[in-house]
Amino acid sequence: MQEGGEDAPSAADALAIIQQAQSHASSRLSPSIGVFYLVWGISWVVIGLAWFLAGIDVVSVAVSSWVTGIAVVGAACVSAAVGIRTGRGVSGPSSRQGLWYGLSWPISMSLLGVLVGVLGSRNLPGDTMSVIAPALYVFLAGALYMLSGAVWSSRVDYVLGIWIMVVAVVSAMVGLPASPLIIGLGGGGALLFAGVRAMVHRSAR
């Protein structure tokens, strides 16, 4: 017994305190994952709907292009801001690992853009490129999510990556005009679901 008649903390009490502290630290260090999912989920849905509407001549290609640019830049800015805020105070291998993974997205997407440009210069039909190019980008995104799940032992990311790659394959098989809608609702919808799930899970901690 301690002075004042209070029981000394047991090993179980200490473990519970450590687990609570770890949970609190985790919620502070990774509150962004739900935001990332939600922001990019909204972006995918908006872009998919815009290009589907362009495919059925409801809006022009120019409008869809502007919508795509705004959605991507907006989501990227929000992601960067949240990522910088979350990364403050984190150093060492975890920080370097996160940085390298974060850089893998723009690097791989940029190089894929070059590859798509090369494919387009090979006189492939326009309709074919309109289906294959988005499917390639989505497939790569799925592979990166799957990699994230493997690196950080995240079942959600791993399954999400597989699902997004399936969406990419299905969109290529179906073709225009439905392929953008499949990507928007199938991929974007999955991201939104993951985002809501992450937010609910964090609030329950």
Task: Characterise this structure.
The protein has 205 residues and is mainly α. The model is unreliable at 1-9 and 14-29 (pLDDT under 50). Helix 2 (32-55) runs antiparallel to helix 3 (61-87), helix 5 runs antiparallel to helix 6 and helix 6 packs antiparallel against helix 7 (179-203). It has one domain. It is built from seven helices and no strands. The chain is globular, with a radius of gyration of 21 Å. The chain crosses the membrane at residues 35-54, 66-87, 99-119, 131-151, 182-200.
What is the structure about, briefly put?
By secondary structure, the protein is mainly α. The chain contains seven helices and no strands. The relative contact order is 0.14.
Question: Helices and strands in order, then pairings?
Answer:
Layout: H1 11-29, H2 32-55, H3 61-87, H4 93-120, H5 126-151, H6 155-174, H7 179-203
Task: Show unreliable segments.
Answer: 1-9, 14-29
What is the general shape? globular
Biggest sheet, open or closed, and with what strands and sense?
none
- Total discrete domains: 1
Which percent range describes the beta-strand content?
under 5%
State the main characteristics.
mainly alpha, transmembrane helix, transmembrane, membrane, 205 residues
